[in-house]
Amino acid sequence: MNRKGKIETASNSASPYTGGITIKSASEMEAMRRAGAIVGATLTLLKRSVEPGMTTRDLGNIAHQEITRHGAKPTFKGYRGFPGSICASVNEEIVHGIPGKRVLKEGDIIKMDVGATIDGFIGDAAVSVAVGQVSQEALDLMETTRLSLEAGINAAQPGNRIGDIGAAVQTYSEERGYAVVREFVGHGVGRFLHEDPQVPNYGQPGRGQLLRAGMCIAIEPMLNIGDWHTRILDDNWTVVTADGSLSSHFEHTIAITEDGPEILTKHT
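RESULT FIELD:
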């Protein structure tokens, strides 16, 4: 839920990044795993719940109940004034859609971004899901976005750099004809939803912050069928493609370990 270098509301006030880069201790990493597991369970439930005729508010309510059932709190609710327990973004909406009265229709794609806080630590992940039968164009976009996330995660090895992640996402996506959103990026995560470093979905290999064991980051590619430019709606939150084209978003929180990246927010 971030914009590169600035908060994503129309006011574009203070940066959301807090606390610098943190290296988690063994106990803190266990707390991150607990938070990530709750996010994963919530996304699994949401994916199974999506169907034509329901509203985005219905999905928000399902997520709220699941997160609190696990003894956690929805991280997004109240974050800098955000009113929802999840972000629910449909079709040309890229991220930060507010759950509400919008009814899902056959052929839509819905992007659901979930955060959960437990024991003072946060998990953050997102998926794109087809509503009923969707076009092959939409299926290809979502699959490419999901696989670009995998490419970014595979590049998140200790000793690599942030630019290696962005380059992996960008190369995979652009070779398949999709535009990578540049104005919104991934981020460190831990006690705060947005910690350093920022994790763009584009970049040059070997550039940027060194990846070290104990870091936790959220990698979240956002791909558009059209160009990469965005705009923010009058609600000061919902980000849409500037050209009205379809967009997809996937995200995982991962831990950098000595053995490579560990996905903390797995779902089925």
